[in-house]
Write a structure and sequence with these properties.
Length: 770
């Protein structure tokens, strides 16, 4: 331990000596005149690389470890922990002299370069290993040192910048840092992923790292020779613990709200591809506004924040599916307002520059806490996205005190203590009356009661506890009580790391429906004569229905059938005695709904002996014996949730090994937003598959009983089997040959992008079941 520390000091001393030797050259070049743009570019490049790393490395790991939530939660925790560690390191290194800081930092940069080029270490998830324990060590070993060093740039460069007092306030550099983060975030799905392979992305990132090292070295050359002594002459008192805790809370709420807004938008409103980019982008841009040297925009938003919280936060419990564009706009406006307001309060409460790194360490700690609450704790504690309204109420408690009208101030000064209790109590009482309307609270009276709650909230502006209580009353009056009652009294909602599953009734079709947010996942008729009849995408006339009914004709008795994606277990009702069925399902919550909930009976009535293989389907099939299946149905895609690693050329090689040489692969490609047929066609052409597709349009009578439009593609490496399937399908909808799209080469583990296959998005059609 002592020897390592001695070597580090020696390396730092040598680097510091080199910097001292060239300091004169830096002065000759007019270092102070170039210092501000130099630091701006350095912070910008470092933040850009940081937010480019996360999606790139996650994309690299996808084929290796699958899409299980434990993998991604572990990866997220590693990124957050390394970011927090980088900020802690930037704070710790401040105990040394400025030149020694620079030498030590550059030496550690050189040491981290041993992990270049950036990528994923060799190895796969061992069978039976616990991802939540094994994957973090794997990510740490792969990118830990690189991510750690890059994450320290924003606070450390600001600290160095502040060592020369004539340069001015260093905090606006944090706005530039988040602008770089936003650029890195947006550029990955729009530029890097569509244009470059993963290997090319890694090489480009390596070049960016080298550029960052040069920029950091250049910044080190601008450090004044007496910087260490200057800082120590006039130290400021350390922030008190309550102030540090306040910083952490102000950072935690926007961080958590960013994640909860993403969940709320993509499950309760509309699941548009890449919609997750908007909340994260808004979160990053809020720092740009909140920490800008010009305060006009931030001050204006802070003044408006109570009204925005009432307007957009009051309807939090409403699903918004009937008007998704409006609901999504409200949700994003709410996130933007809260993030700018609380981050502006952070800026107002910022300490003197000698405590700058401790301030950013508190911000990073708050970000980690917000992420942990939403990504790890909330799915375990709640059966609905309750973290979203809770964080909105928390934001109301943290709003800076603003004055609405002076006459209100006079009333509060006389009666403040009892009004803090009376106003929220009145709002909650009115909300309960609205939710359970009696004759007194029906029609216009209910509207009047809602207006009364809003007026109580407006009267409470500037009094955090009272305002938060009135806001909570408004939320509960607009669907909140009903949501809570559903959680307590009805067994119709389940939550996992994949999202919230709701079981409802479709009175028109006389059926029970399983939805994931706004996306249909299965349906079962309540009519005793139709109870075991496959419906939705799996009806007898659909592509998978025709193939399943022809299984005995194609392969004789005792066929072995695999299905990727369990849902409600609808396909099980195509099983016949003697066949061997197995389902591959990644989400334990779905297994519970299909087998134990009592709401859906397909599986236990039609295929009680079917085996369920829990885990990522690609990994499970890769471990299956070669040629162990006659037919495999791939149904893991719904709405925007398209696991890319299941549609790459390498994935189809896995399916080909699991199937017999004359086996049949059925791929479900129905999707509102993505044209997946070219992806499948390209993989089929590369792997020597013969394919045909079938688009099924149910009749009006079938639609009335729950049938929906579906698109299935059948593939086999034995062309004769496709011909046999077409003949066995009879005179129903025609199977048509699939053809690769010119210029589109499909997806591989090294390259995949959804941009070339995006369909135009029409918000008036977003409630179409898919």
């Amino acid at each position: 331990m002592f020897r390592r520390a001695h070597l580090s000091r020696a390396a730092g001393g040598e680097a510091a000596g080199f910097l001292t030797g060239v300091a004169g050259l830096a002065a000759a070049l007019g270092r102070e005149r170039a210092a501000r743009p130099l630091f701006l570019v350095t912070v910008l490049v470092g933040s850009f690389l940081l937010f480019l790393t996360q999606p790139m490395v996650a994309r690299m790991a996808l084929p290796r470890f699958g899409g299980a939530p434990a993998v991604w939660n572990s990866a997220m925790l590693v990124f957050q922990a390394l970011l927090l560690g980088g900020y802690a390191y930037a704070h710790w290194i401040g105990r040394f002299g400025a030149r020694r800081q620079a030498g030590l930092h550059l030496a550690l940069f050189a040491l981290a370069a041993l992990w270049l080029p950036i990528g994923i270490a060799r190895g796969v998830l061992p069978q039976g290993a616990e991802p939540v324990l094994w994957v973090p060590w794997f990510f740490l070993a792969s990118i830990g040192p690189l991510f750690f060093m890059v994450s320290a740039q924003a606070p450390l460069m600001q600290r160095w910048y502040a060592l020369e007092s004539s340069r001015g306030d260093p905090y606006p550099l944090y706005a530039v840092s988040n602008l770089g983060s936003f650029a890195g975030l947006i550029s990955y799905p729009l530029l890097f992923e569509p244009l470059l392979t993963l290997d090319q992305q890694s090489q480009l990132w390596t070049a960016g790292y080298a550029l960052l090292v040069l920029l950091v070295a250049a910044c080190a050359l601008t450090i004044p020779a007496t910087a260490h002594e200057t800082v120590q002459l006039e130290p400021t008192p350390a922030p008190a613990l309550p102030r540090v805790l306040h910083w952490i809370a102000l950072a935690a709420v926007p961080s958590g709200l960013m994640l909860s807004t993403t969940t709320h938008l993509t499950t309760d409103i509309v699941a548009v591809p890449m919609l997750w980019v908007l909340p994260l982008g808004i979160y990053l841009l809020s720092f740009v506004i909140a920490f800008a040297s010009r305060r006009g925009v931030a001050v204006f938003i802070v003044q408006l924040s109570p009204l925005i919280l009432l307007i957009a936060g009051g309807v939090t419990f409403d699903s918004g599916a009937q008007n998704p564009a409006f609901a999504a706009t409200l949700g994003l406006a709410l996130l933007f307002t809260v993030a700018v307001t609380l981050h502006a309060e952070l800026y107002r409460l910022r300490p003197a520059p000698d405590h700058l790194t401790g301030f950013y360490l508190a911000i990073a700690a708050g970000g980690v806490l917000g992420g942990l609450f939403c990504a790890i704790l909330a799915p375990v504690l709640f059966d609905w996205a309750y973290e979203h309204p809770l964080l909105i109420v928390a934001a109301a408690l943290l709003l800076p005190r603003t004055r609405l009208m002076q006459v209100f101030d006079r009333v509060w000064s006389r009666h403040g203590w009892w009004l803090v209790v009376a106003l929220p109590a009145a709002a909650l009482a009115l909300s309960l009356a609205i939710d359970e309307p009696m004759d007194l609270f029906s029609g216009n009276a209910a509207i009047a009661a809602t207006i009364a709650i809003i007026l109580l909230a407006l009267f409470s502006v500037g009094r955090r506890i009272a305002f938060a209580g009135c806001l909570a009353g408004l939320m509960l009056s607009y669907g909140g009580w009903w949501t809570l009652n559903t959680s307590i009294n009805w067994d119709t909602r389940t939550r996992s790391y994949f999202g919230v599953y709701s079981i409802t009734s479709d009175t028109a079709a006389n059926a029970r429906v399983l939805t994931h947010g706004t996306t249909l996942h299965g349906m079962q008729s309540l009519d005793p004569e139709r109870r075991l009849e496959p419906i939705t995408y799996y009806g007898p006339g659909s592509g998978v229905g025709l193939a399943m009914r022809a299984t005995e004709t194609l392969y004789g008795p005792g066929a072995r059938v695999g299905v990727v994606g369990l849902g409600t277990g609808t396909l099980a009702c195509y099983a016949v005695p003697g066949q061997d069925w197995r389902f591959y399902e990644i989400d334990p919550a779905v297994v519970g709904i299909a087998t134990r909930s009592g709401h859906f009976t397909y599986l236990r009535s039609c295929a009680p002996d079917a085996r369920i293989v829990l885990g990522d389907a690609r990994i499970s099939l890769d471990r299956a014996p070669p040629g162990s299946l006659h037919l495999l149905a791939l149904d893991a895609f719904s709405s925007d949730s398209v696991p890319m690693h299941l549609l790459t050329r390498e994935a189809f090689e896995v399916y080909g090994r699991a199937l017999r040489p004359d086996g049949l692969l059925l791929v479900h490609v129905s999707n509102r937003y993505l044209d997946l047929e070219p992806v499948v066609a390209a993989a089929a052409a590369a792997g020597g598959w013969k394919g045909a597709g079938l688009t099924y349009y149910p009749t009006d009578s079938e639609t009335a009983h729950g049938a929906t439009v579906s698109i299935w593609i059948a593939l086999s490496r034995d062309p004769a089997k496709i011909e046999d399937l077409i003949r066995a399908s009879g005179t129903g909808p025609p199977w048509t040959p699939i053809k690769p799209r010119p210029g589109f080469f499909g997806w591989t583990d090294d390259y995949a992008s959804i941009l070339p296959i995006l369909r135009p998005i029409h918000f008036d059609l977003l409630d179409f079941p898919q």
